[in-house]
Request: fold
Amino acid sequence: MSFLPLAGMRVVDMTSSLAGPYCTLLLGSLGADVVKVEHPERGDEARAWGPPFWSGESTMYLGANAGKRSFGLDVKDPRGLEAARRLIDSSDVFVQSLRAGTAEKLGLGGDAMRERNPRLVYCNLGAFGRKGPLAMDAGYDPLLQAFSGIMSVTGETGRGPVRAGVSLIDQGTGTWAAFAIMAALWQRESSGVGCTVDVSLFETALGYMTNPSLGFLATGNAPRANGTGYPSIVPYQVFAARDGNLMVAAANDRLFASLCGALGLGELPTDPRFAHNPDRVANKEALLPLLEAKIGERSRDELVAMLRDAGVPAAPVQDAGEVWNHPQTEAINIKQALPHPDVPDFVTYGVPFQFDGERPQFRSAPPRLGEHSAEVLAELGYSDDDIAALRADGVITSKG
Reply:
């Protein structure tokens, strides 16, 4: 039996890009009816982010919007705004990522909407938080990677700052938003009233910077980039094999000894310079070339198998295609194929959790822009004539 704790609940998603859509993707996977309110002409801005496109659809959009219904609606038109209010009035959760102050100007702010619907869980998903000198600034994932200091500890020593190759701030913020919304819904079960949830890209980024920040407080020195390594553990980094790269995580003295034994360097663990992790950190410039020389003699896959047999954590550095086709990816049953009218053979990764061994399944493919506008309006009591008039005047897009 599917585990769908949010079945019967409606979530209104007035977000775009990635953080907000990822939040509502998670909520939808748990059974919520997610109605994605989009601009009637351009839709979610992620629809235009590409290449790559898949049969004309942005892969960024496709990756974060399965299982939702699209409502193409102009909320700046009074009739569209009234439809949005009616929709939120009948919903359990409202998630918005409009520019700071915009929701309040439209009359869709938290106080106004919770007065109309006291049980509403209202989520503000912003850039820098609701207060402070930057509260009104816009934010995107790489801006916050830069501002928070994440870029300062990412990349190679002595080279320029590097952005993480995935949108970890966006998806992390979406995850925290879903987590907080679930907690608010749980509280509502006993209190009978909703609350306002605030999350931001900046707060997510600061959470990820806890260890570097504590290092700064402890020493007065701001940590710097260490490539694939970690400043407090050696060896704990990527090494170049003969035909590729692998990550080695010899995180304690026992694992270091096992690594050295596998590589034929059994004398190193008894060398006073390398006996314990603080010693190895202090003397890594002497240690790493010894390891690099031995590792460079063998193929990547040979090394991974050899180190696995020795009990040393190691992994090949794979690209997206390699990991997609890996037997471990197949074994955990995380891929989900979804019928899509425009993208033949559409398949995506499902959500990264299971309940009693069962992964929640997306109920539908990412929607076309406005695919469900007429359907949603009918549920709100609009007649066919009302819907036709709104469509004719451009207040809605209806492509279902």
Observations:
- Residues 168-191 form the longest helix (24 residues).
- The two ends are 30 Å apart (CA to CA).
